[in-house]
TrEMBL record:
Pfam families: Fn3-like (PF14310), Glyco_hydro_3 (PF00933), Glyco_hydro_3_C (PF01915). GO terms for molecular function: beta-glucosidase activity. Its EC number is 3.2.1.21. This is beta-glucosidase. It comes from Paenibacillus xylanivorans. It comes from the Bacteria.
Amino acid sequence: MNNEQLLDLVNQMTLEEKTAQLLQLTANFYEGTNVEGQITGPMEEMGITEQSVDASGSILGLSGAQAIIDVQQAYLKKSRLGIPLLFMADVVHGFKTIFPIPLAIGCSWDTELAEKSAEIAARESAVSGLHVTFAPMVDLVRDPRWGRVMETTGEDPYLNSLFSAAFVRGYQGDSLKDEPDRLAACVKHFAAYGAAEGGRDYNTVDMSERNLREYYLPAYKAALDAGVEMVMASFNTVEGIPASGNEKLMRDILRDEWGFDGVLISDWASIREMIAHGAAEDDREAAYRAIRAGVDIEMMTPCYVHHLPELIKNGEVEEKLIDEAVLRILQLKEKLGLFENPLRAADPEREREIVFSKEHRQVSYELATKSAVLLKNDNHVLPLKPEANVALIGPFAQSEDILGWWSCEGVKEDAVKLGTALQERITAGKVHMAQGSNVHTITAEQIAEALEVASKADLIVLALGEDSEMSGEGGSRTDIRLPAAQLELIKQLKAAGKPIASVIFNGRPLDLHGVFEESDAVLEAWFPGSEGGAAIADVLTGVVNPSARLTMSFPQSVGQIPVYYNHFNTGRPLNPQKTEERYVSKYIDSPNDPLLPFGFGLSYTSFEYDDMEVSSHEMTADQPLTIQVRVTNAGERAGVETVQLYVRDVTGEVVRPMRELKGYVKLSLAPGESGTATFTLNEEQLRYHHSDLSHRSDKGTFHIFVGPNSRDTLESTFKLV
């Protein structure tokens, strides 16, 4: 259908049919799902009619090719105008083949592989009947107490923007109609959900518009520039107004300034939640505010279907707002080719061939190997030798709970276990296993067994972490250390006097005290996905040389939070050589710096940086700089080094961060080999939002930093003239 035909379709719809098209419900409202208690109970609870369900526009959370075929066919038999349903789900980091959590994917600094993971997730989802994924989540985060940090790629707006665009490209491809094995992507959560106060989910967000534009909005804009079809409003307030009713955010910025003409959807029940926020008196006012803000689809509350017809008839809302919303939804259905083929790629036979295929699991494995960050490796404890005599101890030694909170159709039992994989790889030596503790509890018997197993080994590998319920949505924590039971296990095993390599499975940066200082080596595995056990075993044994780099800082303690690399200097900065000074910006009981900085990660080899060259010490608007650094693999193993470029604007009209990531280059070097990392830096990259919100650069002095992370760098200077 062309746009004229779609407009004609809108004109044929009754007002009630239009408002129903804006309603999104879960599967148990529909015929054909075979869900016990379907239809009648949920309809009565929500207070909606069978007619509204029969004319609704989209369905949430159903998957499986045959199930979706059955529902779509049953729905279309009742549809007066033959408008097909949209099927949507949270495919966040894989459908059945689960990839590492997005925070881990960010640590790969590999946007091509991230794009590939989204393409595979789309392929599996589409053949299983889905049309839209609620991903990517691109919220910038600086507070690891928030459980949903697992869904983001980190604390840097530049890097987040690169991954945002990569995920959108992977999900959507070049043409949704011509590529039925792709999904429409939905970027979320607009806006600034990652800045929830206290790291508490759904909490208030309050910041200046300048801060919002400088750090939090770029990754959403990158998704729009990549062609994302849908945007999801966030749960939180922005400038005191809930996002779902925030006209400035949704109309002024998203639609008018950025030109977004795709579908805007609420988050689960977030339109009705304006009442709890205190921004709407009742469902009627919530509907009024949301439709005026431009929210097209209401997820799982009936404010629109109950009240929009009355609001329009009373002249309080213009019907053209409804028509625009309906048209945008129909346009998305047309882009997906649903009017010609309502079943799209749903195919039970192909589903069995494609979903969780060996090829897909191989990409999951590769991404997991590139996402695991080596945080410590004293005395070269890792990699394990083939003849190693190892004690593998801990609640994650044989755990299947390594997929993470948002694992969609992932099955824990399908995940490769670390212990099983390690036993397959250490063939000349031996792997002795003991659970040691549960995630949250420990017994005397478990300690005794762990000590007995440790006594048989030359080295202890501790498999520790959070269970999946400890992060994700609703998974905020005030104490981000490992549970006390696991800290006790470390303490007991330390007394055995054997080298300890700790592997951490988790969904957020942790306070690693009680682990870091007690371990000779620490490997951050995150929740690594379906092939996680195999991937981590290959990193531990040196089949793969770790190359990942942190995209969130690891704090010294929760009391430092928020702690992030691109902070301001303050008027009384701490001089590291004068830590005894009192009247400077510091803690009296902790360093200012994080335990591990943004960009940090070790390798089984070592790299040396020298010969930093800058093409000129002056930059003009039409004359960029070239920066080169020689990097040498000084170790005995081939490795990949992620060379990072940072800049500091020394004096700005608005205070500028101490360092800002502006680029990175990956160098793959053999032992003894040198390579050159080359960067181009131009005036546009030096622009920022001034106090009047204009986006421009300031002339003056800039510092350049190049190194393996945001802390350990070579330095040079130039002037923008």
